[in-house]
Amino acid sequence: MSASTIDQIQRRFEGDTVPLPGKRVRQVLSIVLFFVLWAALVRFGILGFDKFVGPETTLVALVESLAGAPMTEGGETLYEHAAFSAYRVVVAVLIAMGIAIPLGLTIGTSRRWEDALFPALEVFRPVPPVAWVPIALLLMPTFRSGVIFVVFIGAFFPILVNTIEGVKTVEEEYVQAAASLGAESRDIFRHVIIPATLPSIITGVSLGVGLAWITVVAAEMIAGGVGIGYIIFQAYRLLQTEVVAVGMIAIGVLGYASAAAVHRTGHYLTRWEETE
Amino acid sequence: MSKHDSTTDDSTTAGPTPETTGKTGAIDINDLTKIYDPEGEHVVAVQDMDLSVGAEEFVALLGPSGCGKSTVLECIAGYLDPTDGEVLVDGNRVSKPDPKRGVVFQENRLFPWKTIKENVEFGPRMHDSIEEGRAESILDEMGLDGFEEAYPSGLSGGMQQRAELARLLANDPDIMLMDEPFSALDALTKEIMQKKLLEVWERDNRTVLFITHDVEEAILLADRVVVMTARPGQVKDVIDVDIERPRDPEVVTTDRFTELRERALSVIREEAERALEQEDGA
Ligand SMILES: Nc1ncnc2c1ncn2[C@@H]1O[C@H](COP(=O)(O)OP(=O)(O)O)[C@@H](O)[C@H]1O
Ligand SMILES: [Mg+2]
Q: Are residues A18 and A114 in the same domain?
């Protein structure tokens, strides 16, 4: 019902009244506008932007990087750095899902486990993932696993919290209906609790992936050795501001692509939710 | 509770048991009291209610809204624990839900994440008794062929309710507990559903406890109409519907039907007025 109201409002605003350019044209326009603004900021030195590069130089650097030129002083290309960051995000998110989802389902369904585990987890939750970097460096055998650990922490809590919340809001009616059809508690867990919680889990995963990208960049700046975060910071130290900008664009693209992938997968898994 | 200490499930002799009748699905409600929130607001929903529903009998439970009908049904279903008294089914005390007691509510409780066919096969699957083609034939009977692979959200309200009935029938319960199952449907769909239900019941002979606040629906469907008092709910009157079966929705035009309806209405009117006075007093 509310969806149709929103539709109506949108229609009113986007209007059959005022003819607007097509969707594609507007998207292109928005990007062009962004570049114009960026160029203006640099050109007129607004907010100290004259110390940064403009879009033209960045574009040249971007094309070079995309062509496979090694970045900063190391030998790795943009693709290799991106692959490292993406690898860390994917592995960390998968581990976080593997632990947080079962844990959340357990805590959500069992009062006893909730009392045993949740208070301790609540204490750690407000600690920003990056604050775990020193511990990670001390405990983990390599830089690489250290970064993964920190990214894991970043992705873990949103998935856990949303899974627990999802279990707690499963409607009692479905549990009763299943019981009246002969389901035992194991069947109820499998056929009711898990699917009913799935939309919340997906919300948690998409938040987790977003946080994983933020965390991976921050962790790589401190301790990556390789990766987009590392390259951004390295370039900053070498005053190669166009490389900083290329790194930022790369993160934006990767983050966008992974969010879209999660969204699509989630949409497919909960296709039963569609109302139309 | 203490008064039941001396009787065990097996020795309870209050009602008919399968041994004495050869039929299953008898319900005995003894002294049922349900109080919500006993420490706080203390809502007495049902008080000292007694009612027996024979095996394979069709009983309609009629009463003003808020009088405790759903509470009674949920006690029989095993969703609620009585505050006092007990519900026996075939002589055994109800303590939890059981596939022998199927339930349908006004708002459907189909699993939204399962297709219609998966929903219908859910019960049989729980006891490993899926028969190839059975879900299809039940869905077919309910006029839902072609919707096996659809999700509940893709169906209209009437179709969802039919699918819910199909899910119930596929599980072959002794007792069907139905809480205003058709009240959200439009008049035409409702009539079709009533006809379907009569057809199915006259063929399979299950016990049905059918809650409604629609007098005509109660008389059309039931062997007996039990009218409840306003809250706290109790049995106010029982009307035997001596209209022969098979019935179809046309019986509403007969004189006997009109008589029974007037009688039920006068009882209900009395109760509704009493309920209003209660509210004014409060
Ligand atoms: N969970 C609950 N907590 C407190 N009061 C309740 C609860 N459920 C029902 N009631 C109250 O108990 C009374 C009987 O409710 P119900 O059995 O649903 O009536 P009916 O189905 O006849 O409309 C109503 O006054 C209702 O407000
Ligand atoms: Mg009710």
A: no
Atom of ligand 1 nearest to the CA of B179: 21
Coil, helix or strand for B60? strand
- Please list the pLDDT of chain B residue by residue as tens digits (282 residues): 333 443 344 444 455 566 666 788 899 999 999 999 878 888 999 999 999 999 999 999 998 888 899 999 999 999 999 999 999 999 999 999 999 999 999 888 999 999 999 999 999 999 878 888 888 999 998 889 999 999 999 998 889 999 999 999 999 999 999 999 999 888 888 998 999 899 889 888 899 999 998 999 999 999 999 999 888 888 989 999 998 888 887 888 899 999 999 999 998 888 878 777 776 655
Q: Which residue has the tokens 């229609």?
A: A11
Contacts of A179 in chain B (CB under 8 A): 78, 96-97
Q: Within a domain: residue A25?
A: yes
Which pTM does this prediction carry? Answer: 0.83
Whether B28 is covered by a domain: the verdict is no
Secondary structure element (H or E) that encloses residue B192, with its range: helix B187-204
| Residue A150 within any structural domain of the chain | yes
Residues of A with CB under 8 A from a CB of B: 173-174, 176-184, 187, 191-192, 195-196, 198, 270-275
Give the chain B residue whose CA is nearest to the CA of A274: B153
Chain A: closest CA distance from residue B4 (Å): 26
CB contact under 8 A, A182 and B111: no
Q: Give the Cα separation of A149 and B39 in Å (integer).
A: 50
Domain that holds residue A217: 78-269
What is the per-residue DSSP string for A98-136?
HHHHHHHHHHHH-HHHHHHHHHHHHHHTTS-GGGGHHHH
Residues A33, A89, single domain; the answer is no
Chain B residue numbers with beta carbons less than 8 Å from the beta carbon of A195 are 111, 113-114
Chain B residues with CB-CB distance to A177 below 8 A: 103, 109, 111
Domain count within chain B: 1
Residue B167: domain span: 101-172
For ligand 1, atom 18, name the residue with the nearest CA.
B70
Number of domains in chain A: 2
Query: Looking at the domain assignment, is residue A64 inside a domain?
Result: no
Residue B143 in domain: yes
For residue B139, tell me if it sits in a domain: yes
Q: Among candidates B224, B202, B218, B201, which has minimal Cα distance to B261?
A: B218
For A203-221, letters b (16+ CB in 10 Å) and e give bbbbbbbbbbbbbbbbbbb
